[in-house]
Design brief:
The chain is of the alpha+beta class. It is built from nine helices and seven strands. It is elongated.
């Protein structure tokens, strides 16, 4: 997780949050886990919603449409105000009205700030993918590889699985999963081009764990296994790949075709 320099100790004037949204929500305040079992479920959902967009302003209409779609506008906005007040008290006990450092209001939008020393896995994932794009644009393969590894380290699983099939999380969950898949495929391709077949195998397998139907993921895996000299594993992967294609109504394949990967 990317964060600012961690303070030697936290104080009332210098507090920070650490947020994890991939693979399950976790929250630390000043480096310590917090017990929020006493917070009402909808208020916890509000915090998770803001955490998934940490550092970014989210308009109140987006929040109310996501969390209280069944309520009239006035009632939904009132619930939002109550929820924000509850979270501010929970995160910063005794904070004066309008003085919260964590949940900041900017006009009609709200923004969850992590503070100096804090961090968010979603923000770190985004930053690592951006770094990989910059490195590739300048032809710096090793830097791209490092950035892609960092991104995949941050992606510990689906976004906020505890929120299930809630409509507000589905699109972002799928988007992050797709980007992680493409990052793994791209990493496999770069490692294969560097002659690191075993590492490429690991990256291709990660891509297929995320998307078992990813064509380039299968072809990279088979090619890397062949280059690594593991003919039996390549044959098994080829057979599995063909079963996948058959399940999609696609015919048999011969040798893996050249792989074209897209930017994450």
């Amino acid at each position: 997780m990317i964060s600012s320099d961690r303070p030697a100790s936290a104080s009332a004037d210098h507090r920070y949050l650490r947020l994890w949204c991939f693979g399950g929500f976790r929250l630390e305040v000043d480096g310590s886990p917090v017990d929020w079992s006493g917070v009402r479920p909808r208020v916890r959902t509000l915090l998770r919603y803001l955490a998934a967009h940490a550092g970014q302003p989210v308009h109140r209409e987006r929040i109310t449409a996501a969390l209280w779609p069944e309520l009239p506008d006035r009632s939904a906005v009132n619930n939002l105000h109550v929820g924000v007040s509850t979270l501010r008290t929970f995160l910063e006990p005794g904070v004066a009205r309008g003085a919260s450092r964590f949940i900041v209001r900017d006009g009609s939008s709200y923004r969850l700030e992590v503070g100096v020393g804090g961090g968010s896995d979603v923000a770190a994932f985004d930053a690592a993918l951006a770094a990989a794009r910059r490195a590739r644009s300048t032809g710096d393969g090793p830097a791209a590889v490092r950035a892609l590894r960092n991104a995949l380290d941050e992606y510990a699983g689906d976004l906020l699985p505890e929120d299930g099939s809630a409509e507000w999380v589905l699109a972002d969950r799928e988007r992050h999963r797709s980007r992680a898949t493409e990052a793994a495929v791209l990493l496999a391709g770069l490692e294969l081009a560097r002659g690191r077949s075993r590492v490429a195998i690991t990256a291709a397998r990660r891509a297929l764990e995320l998307d078992g139907y990813h064509d380039d993921g299968w072809r990279l895996l088979i090619t890397a296994q062949r280059r690594a000299g593991d003919v039996a594993a390549a044959r098994r992967s080829q057979q599995t790949y063909e079963r996948v294609l058959c399940s999609l109504g696609v015919g048999r394949t011969g040798a893996p075709r050249p792989v074209h990967v897209t930017a994450a």
